[in-house]
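agent: user wants the structure for Glutaredoxin-like protein NrdH from Lapidilactobacillus dextrinicus. delegating to structure tool.
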Amino acid sequence: MNNHKVVVYTRNGCMQCKMTERYLNEHQIGYQEINIDQNPESANYLREKGYKSVPIVFREDAQPIIGFQPAALRELVG
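agent: tool returned. relaying C-alpha cells verbatim.
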C-alpha cells in the first residue's frame, strides 16, 4: 500500500461513491472522505476547478480519478 494521502469527494445517495469507497476499503487503502452535501465549501471548490460529478479521488502524486474506475483505483493499490 502507498503512503500518499488519498481524498475522496462524495455526496449522499451516490452509488458510484459507495462503490469507490467499498473498493478502497476492500483493498485497505486509507482515505479521507469529504461529503460535499455536508461541506458546501468543498462543493464550491470542486465547481471552481471544473468538476461536475462525484466521486473524485485525489492523491498528491496522481491524476484525479472521476467516477468509479476500478482500473484506475487498482493503481492506488500498487
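agent: one observation worth passing along. The chain has a mean pLDDT of 92.
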